[in-house]
Amino acid sequence: MSVTRFVDSRSDEFPLRAPDAAALRRMVRGEVVAPGDVTYDQARKVWNGMVDRRPAAVVYCAGSDDVVAAVKFARSRSLLVAVRAGGHNIGGASVCDGGLVIDVSRMKQIEVDPVKRTARAQAGLNLGEFDAATQAHGLATTMGINSDTGIAGLTLGGGFGKLGRKYGLTCDNLVSVEIVTADGRLLRASTSEHPDLFWAVRGGGGNFGIVTRLEYRLFPIGPMLLSGSLSYPYDRARDAMRFYHAFAKAAPDELSLDAALATTLAGERVFSISTCYVGPIDEGERIIKPLRVYGAPIQDQVAPRCYLEIQSAGDAVFPRGRRYYWKAQFLRELSDAAIDTLLAVYLAAPAESLLVLQQVGGAIARLPVNATPYANRDALYDCFPISIWDDPTEDAARIRWAREAWDAMRPFSTGGVYANNLGEEGTERIEAAYGENHARLRALKNKYDPTNFFRLNQNIAPSAEAAGDGGG
Ligand SMILES: Cc1cc2nc3c(=O)[nH]c(=O)nc-3n(C[C@H](O)[C@H](O)[C@H](O)COP(=O)(O)OP(=O)(O)OC[C@H]3O[C@@H](n4cnc5c(N)ncnc54)[C@H](O)[C@@H]3O)c2cc1C
Questions:
Q1: 152 pocket-lining for ligand 1 (C-beta < 6 Å)
Q2: I need a surface site. Which of 81, 203, 271, 381 has the fewest CB within 10 A?
Q3: Is 309 helix (H, G, I), strand (E, B) or coil?
Q4: Ligand 1 closest atom vs CA 420
């Protein structure tokens, strides 16, 4: 078998043997795509068009048995492994150069129990598919607003969405998972089975294994909710942002208020607030009224909308294949100085850029910090500049603007960051995502993945002694 040298973009150099795709094909029910196959270029793509990596093979698992086989295959050949569900990681962690991509995106079964109000979903569902299946029973749980994000990556890193302030993060509503660990075992983890592993996957990302099935708690939702955006011109944005912050801070859990500095199709810069009231429409009308009457918005699109439409609001803004860069940090306050800084940095933003404030708090903030690995429960906003473009010659300028915007907002940050909004930003930022929970995550990494087999993620590196133990 040939041996190639592969440089892991995050750490040290280590040897990889080229995978034998034919052998892998014999071991799994699903499709294996390798260089030279007509679908190879499609198979190596992820959501962010900036990511251009060439794995040695992509295995589209047909079920948990395929995931077990793929893990054992990769282990036996010391292959670098990337794990992919929806392919939305901003830095492209779910595809690698030279290694094996274990892809679960074709595993799409879902069973909804309308009496118990639970859903058992295979890990390949995207948010739109999950929401459609649960809404068929008038139910839902917290999920994000871009319908082709994967439920697996979103849930394992936390999970923000319009229902989050009322019902908590997606991971807070996880009841159990089925997971293939680094030694190739298929385990069920819940509060009663492997409870330490269950704790770890509720925010600890892909560090502990490949999740094949996720069981969620559901809530009666919709089908119609009061939702939509209000926009203010840039010359009135400062006051609108001050009003927004005061309103958001006092908002009931039912109200979600995300916001952004954005540019209209006509090229006009605006401050835009995206509202959603998780409750009866008339109650929502009453609660949102102060916002609607404040300061004469230039656009008011707040109206009763179908929950599934609300949940795909991001689709048109973030289609697959364009080039994207973002960098996030949490804020607890939006001081006048922070508002002035946001307004100033956005003036220098290239076309199509956004400066987003995603509101959190509410039920998310009421769980103790160590209830799950997700540590930044005291934040009120996730603040992140987003660059969107198509021309590769603009890469440097687009990335520079987002980084400069992030740097400018740094003095106002809590220091924390949402793991699911991290690209390749290094161990310090990963520790900032997990805070005091990082040490416990590392101890569990030592137990469940001592050789760091699952390393292409927001990596919790095992301690050197654990790796030395071999770990099967
Ligand atoms: C356009 C867009 C909109 C977004 N909106 C939201 C939002 O509203 N709310 C929110 O919370 N987040 C949001 N995110 C962030 C999103 O939660 C993360 O990017 C998440 O990691 C995506 O999951 P995925 O399965 O699509 O990604 P992938 O790129 O497939 O996976 C990302 C990582 O998750 C891990 N992983 C994936 N599948 C598995 C598995 N089966 N088992 C174990 N580990 C696995 C791996 O470590 C992998 O590297 C958004 C991202 C994008 C690009």
A1: yes
A2: 81
A3: helix
A4: 18
